[in-house]
Amino acid sequence: MIWFILAFLAAFFDSVKGVFSKKSVKNIDEYIVSWALRFFTLLFLLSAFVFIEIPQIGDRFLMALLIGGSINAITTVLVVKALKYSELSIVAPIITFTPLFLLVTSPIITGEFPTVFGLIGVFLIVFGSYMLNIKKKSIGYLVPFKALLNERGARLMLLAAFLWSITANIDKIGVQDSSPIFWAISVNAYIALIMFPIMLHRIKLYKINKASILSKNFSSGLKNLVMIGLCSSIVLACQMTAINMVLVIYVISIKRISAVISVFFGCFIFKEKNIRERLVGSIIMVIGVLFIALLG
């Protein structure tokens, strides 16, 4: 199954992108990182014009671009902020909530209906999120959920997961009314354009207030930003191609395997603690995702 391989590659490189984003946001302002993510992604995707032709544009393309691009600009900032405020192994598993939200948004936007097995997947996702903070259960059974909601980065990532459940469906409309790569290029160009004034404003604040927005070792930070763009371009190319083959919820569900990969990265790269509970929780959440995708 080509779509499955593409979705898994999207998951892996999405996790790698998270690592470089986490490194970048330590020293560089999160709005600059968000703009750079889209800008460098665009640069890498533009090379695809050598191999593709400009497709025939459908009637829904412009509306999808304006709505999907605007929402994705918000999610980009939300994710970078989440990585800034919380550990990677905490925020990464939260993205598995996207297929849960897709059970509601997909039927409304694209008319795609999963089966009742989706309910089992929903239960596993919720239970897995509970397991992320299972150690706190000793002071109350609802405390793990409260801990998740009290974590600033987790709240931001949960909002991003919901917004992704909307944009994933809009992506399919955009792909159907153009082509996978052309849509990915268009979205990133639009987001980089509308975020450009915000990025300039943040740099202006840096110059006026002499705040430490940019890293002192900017060359190192620039390398991380370039790597974010490279990984993001691979993710988008794989994801957009895959959603043109099967249901959106299938592709996004497989992509959420990145949650488990990210927990390992959090452990081995950032030396984060309580990895065992987070790994168990994220695996349960991914199993729930697979129930939705493969049995739904």
When the domains are counted, the total is 1
Overall pLDDT level: 80
SS elements, strand count: 0
The arrangement of helices and strands along the chain is HHHHHHHHHHHHH
Please estimate the helix content. over 70%
Write down the Rg: 19 Å
Estimate the strand proportion.
Answer: under 5%
| Principal-axis shape | globular
Please give the alpha-carbon distance between the first and last residues. Answer: 17 Å
Largest sheet: none
Class computed from helices, strands and strand pairing: mainly alpha
- Total helices: the number is 13
Q: Which runs of at least 5 residues are low in confidence (pLDDT < 50)? A: 208-215
Q: What does this protein look like?
A:
With 296 residues, the protein is mostly helical. The protein has one domain (2-295). Helix content is 77%, strand content 0%. The protein has 13 helices and no strands. The protein has helices spanning 2-25, 30-46, 61-85, 88-91, 97-109, 117-131, 143-150, 152-176, 180-209, 218-243, 248-255, 258-268, 275-295. Helix 1 (2-25) packs antiparallel against helix 10 (218-243). The protein starts with a helix and ends with a helix.
Structure keywords:
single chain; 296 residues; mainly alpha; 13 helices; 0% strand; globular
Compile the SSE list and pairings:
Elements lengths: L1 H24 L4 H17 L14 H25 L2 H4 L5 H13 L7 H15 L11 H8 L1 H25 L3 H30 L8 H26 L4 H8 L2 H11 L6 H21 L1
Helix pairs in contact: 1-3, 1-10, 1-11, 1-12, 2-3, 2-9, 2-10, 3-8, 3-9, 5-6, 5-8, 5-11, 6-13, 8-9, 9-10, 11-13, 12-13
